[in-house]
Amino acid sequence: MTEETRAEKFLELFNKGKEFTEELLRENQRLRYRIATLETEHTPGSSDEVARLRAEIQQLTDENRRIGQRFREVEEENKDFANRYIEVEEQNNNLANLYVASYQLHSTLDFREVITIVQEIVINLIGAESFAILLLDEKTNELKTIACEGEDVMPGIQTISARLGEGILGEVAKTGESYYINQDVEGGGKVTIEKPLAAVPLKIKEHVIGLISIYRLLQQKDSFSAVDYELFSLLAAHAATAIFSSKLYSQSERKLNTIQSFLDLLTTTS
Amino acid sequence: MENANFLVVEDSPTMRQLISFSLKRFKNAKIIEAVDGVDALKKLSGPDKIDLILTDINMPVMDGLKLVSLVRQNAQLKAIPIIIITTEGAEEDRERGLALGANAYISKPIQSSHLIKTISELLAV
Fold first, then answer.
1. Which domain covers residue B62, as residue numbers?
2. Residue A185's domain is classified under what CATH number?
3. Which of A99, A218, A221, A235 to mutate: most B Cβ within 10 Å?
4. Distance between alpha carbon B82 and the CA centroid of its chain, in Å?
5. How many domains is chain B partitioned into structurally?
6. ipTM field
7. Is residue A53 part of a domain?
8. CATH no. for residue B98?
9. How far apart, in Å, are the Cα atoms of A170 and each of A173, A208, A211, A243?
10. Is B87 close to A101, i.e. CB distance below 8 A?
11. Which domain holds residue A8?
């Protein structure tokens, strides 16, 4: 091939390249135009639209904030309701205990049965393992055990004897004021026959007829609870009247039997 | 749980009344009372189908542990859930009761809400 022919071929190739480049530039321009058109088409049409959307976003944000706030308030209310529900449940439980204790105490006029019921209340409702019920002998002014439970853990409670006004038991019987130390703070060393965990007077109005002296609580019970103090108050009054009336009833029954026997005797002799 | 029949086995009338009082929270509950294990077995063979037994441990004639053991050996009764309610709070007592087949063990003094929750859980199964 001559040099002239080669130059012509090169020129031809160059021209083709030029045409191709120009075609690419045109296509590029066409596409740029197309992109610009599309971008214009997808941009919010007016500033009003933008403002409307912004307002909507603001409204939704405010709404969201309000709902969040309300949610937190409702959550607080729920917690409050849950706490109140627990309180009501507890109160309900306490009232049931008090109702049952009072109902049982006045369910009989038999002295021994009344004493058994007092013992049941002290064991099952208060949760005492060792305790004594003492009655005051008004002739000798002495408190004496008439029933007890848990002699094995507190030996001697079956024969307690305390003079009115002497020691803690005597003082409780004299003043009519309950005595509590709640729990044995020194792990068994502090509670004695004379110094119980609690001593609750049994009284009819201001007249003390005896007391309940508690020495040890059940293993699963650490200390007295709020309802125990309510039960103590109930026992102080209701157990006293129940014991007193059952005693009077048994005395009157005995007298009635004596009179009846006397009348029978008179009838037979005449 | 509605229309459930409960058998309360307890020698103390005070406790029987207290437990029965709590059980009245269940709508149309029928409460059958027994004073000891032997009385409970009689009631279990009666016309009422018992859904749950609540028993004390320390009772005369037949104690609660013996009752639990006999119920678990009886093909007709062994599926009845049993709750022991007792003053015995030691861990070994609890383990003994559960080992004999009791489903739950509650120490006295009882909290009504705890009792209701335990029963609801057992009867929901």
1. 5-124
2. 3.30.450.40
3. A218
4. 5
5. 1
6. 0.82
7. no
8. 3.40.50.2300
9. 5, 11, 10, 19
10. no
11. 1-39
What percent of the residues of chain A are helix, what percent strand, and what percent coil, each to the nearest 5?
65, 15, 20
Say if residue A23 is in the same domain as residue A127.
Answer: no
Q: Do A120 and B14 make contact, defined as CB atoms within 8 angstroms?
A: yes
Shared-domain flag, residues A35 and A117: no
Counting one residue from chain A and one from chain B, the pairs whose CB atoms sit within 8 A come to 60
Using CB atoms, pick whichever of A86, A97, A123 lies closest to residue B18: A97
Inter-chain touch B87–A127, beta carbons under 8 Å: yes
Give per-residue pLDDT as tens, A216-259. Answer: 999 888 888 887 888 888 888 888 999 999 988 888 888 888 88
Any domain includes A77:
no
Distance from CA of B76 to the nearest CA of A (A): 32
For residue A93, what is the nearest residue in chain B, using CA coordinates?
A: B112
Residue B21 and residue A219: Cβ atoms within 8 Å? no
pTM confidence score: 0.73
Rounded Cα distance, A66 and A76, in Å: 15
A163 occurs within a structural domain? yes
Mutate to test the interface with A, among B12, B16, B18 (most CBs of A within 10 A): B18
Tell me: the pLDDT tens digits for A117-176?
999 999 988 889 999 999 999 889 999 999 999 998 899 999 998 999 889 999 999 999
The answer to whether A124 touches B14, Cβ cutoff 8 Å, is yes
Q: Are B36 and B65 in contact (CB under 8 A)?
A: no
User: For residue A125, what is the nearest residue in chain B, using CA coordinates?
Assistant: B109
Residue B43 identity (one-letter amino acid)? K
Our count of domains for chain A comes to: 2
